[in-house]
């Protein structure tokens, strides 16, 4: 039996390590003075609520600056509640209010307020904020009426609350509120422009004299616009010197008023992409404006669309990951959230999204139904084979489905409200019968935590989708699948995200889908996947179900997440993972009172890089460094370790993130010795009873992020106190919010 792509999995792991495993926060160049000025305005003693508007043209960095302020430690310490919402050109006040309430986290789930009208939502938000100091960022505002329609919902509690608005429109910036501070964002200076360019064009080496001169000439034509500069730097970063001359000649032929127009530079960067990368970029045009996409899902969609070809040494997903990294390096995709050393969500700047839509429509590559934009029925592109349907207040989706090209290959429903997700689920039988050539069917619905909706069975008509490669149902109310799923011989990905109290029931026939690569849901009962040699992802499976699987043929399994475990099982063994030679991510979550027997079996997983264990352990192996030499991320929770774990863990040669979570250690003292943790970058300690932590000056030389539980009795050295907190999501485990209405699991 052979692993896909020969997968010399361990060799591939070493190859991946030649590049940084952890993405470093992008430097915010040129905004230092702006950030300090606006931070002072946010923190000043003025008790009245007022608006700060950040104004400037597209691509100048308004959202980047607002994010820098929003995530500032000083800001987080000052305000009781913080929220962020993107408005864009088309908006509905009712939807904005609902998303702001969700972002403020003032309600558990949205079921109780989803039926509220605009006035009721205003009153609800107003009452929720009374007595609290708050900060709300309203990003990408195009009309002053947007803030005017929201203003009544924000009380002036006379406690220093603030509102930040970002906009391209001067009138919006200057006239949105009676009390307003307008900050017009300037263009970068030549020196700032050059530094930003170098960060993108020469990420790991210095420029030579010839390239330096060429680069300065081209940067000078960008007019100090950050987006133009980073796209130019990304374009040139992969080119040899001769390629720089070609780009310069292109730019000089299209100068206007001695500067290059941003739209031409973006188009130039697109035209420079390989055919495969162009397909991946054009696909981003399907995403709604300001949409945050899960990178794992995006990669699976690219693969299912047929954009990606594997190689002898790489899986298709690995090639797709390289494509994603290339688009990020070229600044055509923006990183949004990073967690456990990986980019987990990203988004596209609206100027680049406009470019993707323009190019894609020229090729009849995509078609978008935006109910809020009231897309004209007469404009339906009956020949287009990729359709995106955005949510709205109307009920047009059903009409559009009836009119769409029956030869469509892809149907993607974005951000459907809970009731609309249910209605779409009701139409699945029709969709399966009408669109028999579908490769991709994805329904992205909103989640409610307050009621248990009725679960539905997937209609038997699913058997007609014999070309289907990707099936995604996020809060889609479908949790039971018929035996006829066996006819989906080409199915690669099945993603079933939804309500935690529902368990996805798959028929035994699932074991016959030999092309299945990713199986994601909440599985209990029999799950006969032992013959699925292409399976790479399996999450989340009950421990009892996992123990019934013989994993010897799961030679390509990269990620495994095991949940709970039956209450009557007290001792949990990891022996079953010893045959998983390609395993890189393992997460096991036990019930209280259950315990792992030993970590020794993990020594048979040479590629294991990310390990997260929740459950009693008591004792670590002394030879952790030999057992898990390639481990990069580690989390213990509820382990009740009796001995200081640092003695074993500090020897791990590649460990970069360590989280000692609640009840992971029952002692009161930790010791980190000299030269311990040579590559550790992030450390989080949530041990309330810890009293003493001895750290040698030569320990943890690479540490850049430290988080200690707030009410800890621990006293730490000046050196450790000077280390900032990790990024907001860098060591979060479990569910991460995305687009204010859903979650992804990391």
What does this structure look like?
- The chain is an alpha/beta fold and 746 residues long.
- The chain is 30% helix and 20% strand.
- The protein contains 25 helices and 31 strands.
- The strands form 7 sheets. It has a 15-stranded parallel beta sheet, with helices on both faces. Strands 2-3-4-1-5 form a 5-stranded parallel beta sheet, with helices on both faces.
- Strand 23, helix 23 (624-627) and strand 24 form a beta-alpha-beta unit.
- It starts with 8 loop residues before the first helix and ends with a strand.
- 43% of the residues are buried.
Give the SSE layout.
Blueprint: H1 9-17, H2 32-43, E1 50-55, H3 62-70, H4 73-78, E2 81-86, H5 93-104, H6 111-114, H7 118-129, E3 134-141, H8 144-151, E4 162-167, H9 170-175, E5 180-184, H10 190-201, H11 209-220, H12 226-237, H13 241-253, H14 262-271, H15 275-283, E6 293-294, H16 295-305, H17 316-329, E7 334-339, E8 342-347, H18 350-362, E9 367-370, E10 386-390, H19 397-403, E11 410-416, H20 418-426, H21 428-434, E12 440-445, E13 456-457, E14 470-474, E15 478-480, E16 493-497, E17 518-523, E18 537-542, H22 543-547, E19 559-563, E20 571-572, E21 585-589, E22 595-596, E23 610-614, H23 624-627, E24 633-637, H24 646-649, E25 657-660, E26 669-672, E27 682-685, E28 692-695, E29 705-708, H25 718-721, E30 735-738, E31 742-745
Parallel strand pairs: 1-4, 1-5, 2-3, 3-4, 9-10, 10-11, 11-12, 12-14, 13-15, 14-16, 16-17, 17-18, 18-19, 19-21, 20-22, 21-23, 23-24, 24-25, 25-27, 26-28, 27-29
Antiparallel strand pairs: 6-8, 7-8, 30-31
């Amino acid at each position: 039996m052979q692993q896909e792509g020969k997968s010399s999995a361990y060799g591939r792991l070493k190859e991946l390590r030649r590049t940084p495993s952890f993405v470093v926060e992008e430097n915010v160049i040129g905004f230092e003075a702006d950030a300090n000025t606006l931070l002072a305005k946010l923190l000043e003693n003025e008790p009245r609520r007022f608006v700060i508007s950040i104004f400037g043209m597209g691509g100048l960095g308004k959202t980047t600056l607002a994010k820098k302020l929003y995530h500032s430690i000083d800001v987080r310490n000052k305000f009781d509640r913080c929220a962020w919402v993107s408005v864009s050109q088309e908006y509905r006040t009712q939807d904005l209010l609902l998303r702001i309430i969700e972002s403020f986290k003032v309600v558990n789930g949205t079921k109780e307020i989803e039926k509220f009208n605009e006035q009721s939502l205003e009153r609800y938000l107003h009452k929720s904020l009374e007595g609290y100091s708050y900060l709300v960022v309203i990003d990408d505002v195009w009309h002053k009426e947007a803030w005017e329609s929201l203003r009544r919902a924000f009380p002036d509690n006379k406690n220093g609350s603030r509102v930040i608005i970002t906009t391209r429109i001067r009138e919006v910036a200057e006239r949105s509120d009676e009390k307003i501070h307008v900050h017009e964002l300037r263009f970068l200076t030549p020196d700032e422009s050059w530094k930003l360019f170098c960060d993108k064009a020469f990420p790991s080496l210095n420029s030579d004299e010839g390239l330096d001169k060429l680069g300065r000439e081209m940067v000078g034509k960008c007019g100090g616009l950050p987006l133009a500069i980073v796209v130019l730097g990304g374009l040139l970063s992969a080119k040899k010197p001769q390629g720089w001359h070609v780009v310069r000649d292109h730019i000089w032929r299209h100068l206007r008023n001695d500067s290059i127009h941003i739209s031409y530079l973006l188009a130039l960067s697109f035209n420079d992409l390989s055919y495969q990368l162009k397909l991946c970029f054009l696909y981003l045009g399907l995403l709604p404006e300001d949409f945050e996409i899960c990178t794992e899902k995006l990669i699976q969609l690219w693969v299912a669309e047929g954009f990606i070809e594997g190689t002898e040494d790489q899986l298709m997903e690995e090639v797709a990951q390289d494509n994603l990294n290339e688009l990020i390096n070229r600044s055509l995709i923006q990183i949004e959230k990073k967690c456990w050393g990986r980019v987990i969500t990203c988004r596209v700047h609206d100027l680049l999204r406009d470019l993707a839509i323009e190019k894609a429509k020229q090729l009849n590559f995509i078609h978008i139904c935006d109910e809020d934009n009231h897309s004209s029925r007469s404009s339906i592109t009956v020949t287009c084979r990729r359709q995106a349907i955005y949510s709205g207040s109307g009920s047009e989706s059903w009409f559009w489905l009836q009119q769409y090209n029956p030869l469509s290959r892809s149907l993607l429903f974005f951000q459907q409200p809970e009731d609309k997700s249910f209605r779409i689920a009701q139409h699945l039988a029709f969709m399966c019968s009408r669109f028999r050539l579908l490769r991709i069917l994805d329904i992205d619905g909103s989640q409610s935590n307050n009621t248990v909706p009725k679960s539905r069975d997937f209609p038997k008509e699913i058997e007609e989708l014999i070309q289907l490669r990707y099936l995604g149902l996020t809060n889609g109310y479908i949790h039971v699948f018929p035996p006829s799923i066996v006819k989906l011989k080409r199915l690669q990905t099945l993603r079933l995200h939804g309500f935690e109290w529902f368990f996805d029931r798959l028929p035994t026939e699932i074991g016959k889908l030999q092309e299945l690569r990713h199986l994601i849901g909440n599985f209990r009962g029999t799950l006969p996947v032992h013959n699925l040699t292409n399976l790479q992802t399996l999450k989340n499976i009950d421990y009892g179900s996992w123990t019934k699987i013989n994993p010897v043929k799961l030679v390509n399994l990269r990620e495994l997440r095991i949940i709970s475990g039956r209450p009557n099982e007290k001792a949990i063994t990891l022996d079953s993972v010893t045959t998983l030679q390609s395993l890189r991510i393992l997460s096991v979550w036990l019930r209280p009172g259950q315990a792992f027997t030993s970590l020794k079996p993990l020594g048979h997983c040479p590629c294991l890089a990310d390990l997260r264990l929740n459950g009693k352990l008591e004792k670590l192996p002394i030879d952790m460094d030999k057992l898990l030499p390639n481990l990069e991320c580690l989390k213990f929770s509820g382990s009740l370790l009796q001995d200081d774990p640092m003695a074993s863990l500090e020897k791990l040669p590649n460990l970069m993130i360590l989280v000692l979570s609640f009840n992971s250690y029952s002692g009161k003292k930790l010791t980190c010795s000299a030269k311990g943790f040579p590559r550790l970058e992030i450390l989080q300690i949530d041990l309330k009873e810890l009293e003493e932590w001895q750290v040698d000056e030569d320990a943890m030389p690479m540490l850049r992020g430290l988080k200690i539980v707030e009410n800890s009795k621990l006293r730490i050295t000046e050196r450790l106190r000077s280390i900032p907190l990790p990024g907001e999501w860098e060591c979060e485990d479990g569910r991460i919010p995305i687009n204010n209405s859903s979650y992804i699991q990391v």
